[in-house]
Design brief:
Blueprint lengths: L1 E6 L9 H15 L3 E7 L8 E3 L2 E6 L11 H10 L11 H9 L5 E4 L15 E6 L3 H10 L3 H24 L2 E4 L2 H11 L4 E2 L20 E5 L5 H20 L3 E5 L12 E5 L4 H5 L4 E4 L9 H8 L4 E3 L9 H4 L3 E2 L19 H10 L2 H14 L2
Parallel strand pairs: 1-2, 1-5, 2-4, 5-6, 6-7, 7-8, 9-10, 9-12, 10-11, 12-13, 13-14
Antiparallel strand pairs: 3-4
């Protein structure tokens, strides 16, 4: 079998929930003995096709329209009226030509709604519609934060997304989602079964030897180029950090573009970290004051695998089933009660830790991919 996985980011250059999931798909197909091609947008740069760890990497020299620089006033207006990228914004003859030139394929995997139109460039392939984030739910959450015209336009975008998701899911041979609630919502939209295929904790072995945490330090680790994470930082500064500090806790923040965040009283900005393990070594609990976004919150999963308890908003745990949610201390995002921290951080017991590590391992992700391929017959 020859599988193609399509990405609008270089999955080996950028690291976030979406690119980690792309690499997991590539590795799963490869480990199952299939030929794998990953075609990705190379940001307009011309780069050579190469083979990396058994995966043919094909960089398409194009930049998605939604990622191209815009005048600040246009960018602000667009974000106010349409919170998410448009499906048309990713369309490119260059990327379509790469798909056609490197085929034919037996299976084609897309992980974003805006890459679904490229199914037409590999008509011979069985289509796998995988959703890192279900954009109709994402847009609904965004609309709740808006008023007047921006609320109306974001709701209109949500309805457009829901119709597109329904069409793509109905036509695909395989449908899956990273987030638990996203999978259930896509089932309601499409009227067909949708597999919950959660991402794995990449690099979990890096966390196995972490020393026990020292002190009362709570931290937020995120990629702050992503606007839902910047919103989470503002919630932390406004509602969470003052209460944690009053309870005797230090609050630290780290991650990509964290150095560009506005300083807030009592919050120590650590900047980027060389590896997530360097952050988890420093904290006793992690924080996820998330109000926006969708999918599976990879940093929540990563923290649990690192055996660091998580304090989270309800939104932050929607990507998980009840077994995982039971391990997370969930608090109101705007009015959190941290009374349970008086005696120190919660403890993740040995059995629960082992279960999380096994459930969200690359091997389990590969098994999930194998099960879906078996369903194709």
């Amino acid at each position: 079998m020859h599988a193609v996985i399509l990405s609008l980011d270089d999955p080996w250059e950028r690291s976030h929930g979406g690119t980690q999931r792309t690499r997991l798909f590539c590795e799963a197909f490869r480990d199952l003995g299939h030929e794998v091609t990953c075609i990705f947008a190379a940001g307009g740069r011309h780069r050579d096709v190469d083979v990396h760890e058994g995966v043919l990497r094909v960089p398409a020299p194009m930049t998605p329209a939604g990622d191209r620089p815009l005048p600040p006033i246009v960018k602000r207006a667009k974000r106010a009226l349409l919170p998410l990228p448009t499906v048309a914004g990713s369309r490119s003859r260059t990327l379509g030509a790469c798909i056609r030139d490197h085929g034919p394929f037996d299976v084609m995997v897309v992980q974003q709604l805006r890459t679904a139109p490229y199914f037409q460039d590999a008509p011979e392939a069985r289509s796998w519609f995988d959703q890192v984030d279900l954009w109709s739910r994402f847009a609904r959450t965004e609309s709740a934060q808006r008023r007047r015209l921006p609320r109306a336009t974001s709701l209109a975008q949500m309805r457009c997304f829901a119709r597109a998701e329904q069409r793509c899911a109905a036509a695909a041979a395989v449908v899956s989602a990273a987030g638990y609630e996203d999978a259930r919502a896509l089932e309601r939209i499409s009227g067909r079964p949708v597999s919950w295929l959660p991402s794995a904790a990449v690099g979990a072995t890096d966390y196995a030897g972490l020393p026990p945490p020292d002190g009362r330090v709570a931290g937020l680790l995120a990629n702050f180029s992503y606007w839902p994470n910047r919103d989470a930082y503002r919630t932390l500064a406004r509602a969470w950090a003052p209460r944690l500090i009053a309870a005797g806790w230090r609050v630290v923040v780290a991650g990509h573009e964290s150095s560009a965040l506005l300083p807030a009283d009592g919050i120590e900005i650590l900047g980027p970290v060389a590896a997530p393990s360097a952050f988890y070594e420093r904290v006793a609990v992690t924080l996820a004051p998330i109000r926006l976004g969708g999918g599976i919150k990879i940093k929540v999963l990563e923290s649990l695998v690192a055996r660091r308890p998580v304090i989270a908003s309800p939104m932050a745990v929607e990507g998980f089933d009840e077994r995982v949610r039971a391990l997370v201390a969930t608090v109101d995002v705007e009015d959190p009660d941290f009374g349970f921290l008086r005696d120190g951080p919660p403890v993740i017991d040995d059995e629960s830790w082992a279960a999380v590590r096994e459930r969200f391992s690359p091997a389990r992700f590969r098994d999930g991919v194998a099960a879906q391929l078996a369903s194709l017959g």
